[in-house]
Predict the structure.
Amino acid sequence: MAHEGREGGLDAPTRHPLNQNDPQFWDEDNLNKELERVYDICHGCRRCVSLCNAFPTLFDLIDESPTLEVDGIDVADYNKVVDQCYLCDLCYLTKCPYVPPHEWNVDFPHLMLRAKAINFKKGDTKFRDNIITSTDMIGKVASLPGINTLVNVGNKTAPIRAMLDKTLGIHKDAKLPPYTSKPARKTHGALIFDPQKAADKAIENQAANATVHERVTLFTTCYCNYNEPSIADSVIKVFEHNGVGVDLAAREHCCGMPKLELGDLKTVEKLMEKNIPALYETVKAGNVIVAAVPSCVLMFKQELPLMFPENEQVQAVAKAFFDPFEYLHKLHKEGRLNLDFKHSLGNVSYHVACHQRVQNIGPKTKLVLELIQDTMVKNIERCSGHDGTYGVKSETLEFANKIARPIVKQIEQQAPDHYGSDCPVAGRHIENNLKNKAKDSQDAIHPLDLLCLAYGI
């Protein structure tokens, strides 16, 4: 157990349930006291100053206050810090020596989440933010025939982008992802989970005394479904190439991470109630679950279990959820990963996504890619700064680009054959920053696409 005044401890960091159903959670006076307490601890430490813009904002407020302490900050300015936090979790994971079980009990990201939730409940949220966090709705509309072309052309048309900047606050220079007219779940509709077939397969496995999972459920995610379905294609190709069948859940909605970051906890709960039963059906049939966007994996593995600790289906789904490379590495340890690679990847600059690091699974992507002959992977462990919405807003794009600069610099220095990130949004943000400096720079490529390249599939 940590002692007063001592940094850190010997116990592994842990997290407490969010307790959003406790009336005290929504008490604004109680929140402000907790913000003052934690801000004061952060002020005395300042290790996190280089992570994002939340901490420089806090420290500037303190340094410019009359007392040069937290008590000199106007309480109304507390939210200036909250607005800069996009819940990457890196402060909790990599820097803070006072996380639970330390007696100071500092969980900065979840405190920011609580503040965001109270702000949302009070109506202190922009219309734009409600729209751009509705990723499933936008995807469904933007993928419709006719509308699809208009959206993609509009996203590249300067007058329209200038209008979006002025009216909605979506920065005219932010690169918006294209939308497909052929969503992944529509293309791969034949993979929709069939309970009867799963039951028959379970009987076969039981008769054969099978102990390994032969099928995974792919949670396609809003991004891979509507923006880059090629990544979902790569998941299916890689797993089937390794003898693992792939199912899609009977229905799928946004994981809820964008709404969580907005503080819209009611919508998070509604999305949970839509997603969990369908995913749980596949888990009961013996499937594990994978998703190619780390934020979605983290949502099911960590955030939903902390919000709904008594929900047995949520807990079961969380235990069954894997990062794709985490599962592929598991196959390798079992001697079941196909190592018949056709092509080397050479030097790879690999950005380790924040929400993958928070899963505490180790460098599984690097370990798997380095099984490929003549392939060397160099990790870049910095936040990309995009977050999905932070990197498109008029007031924060500048900060998002600034946070990405150390990554861009490392890639330029490494001059790799390939670069990319498990988070496709982070990969595109890094790519956009590289192309802002050199128009002819190469494109980011997702590690799952790299595997397909190495396999020659």
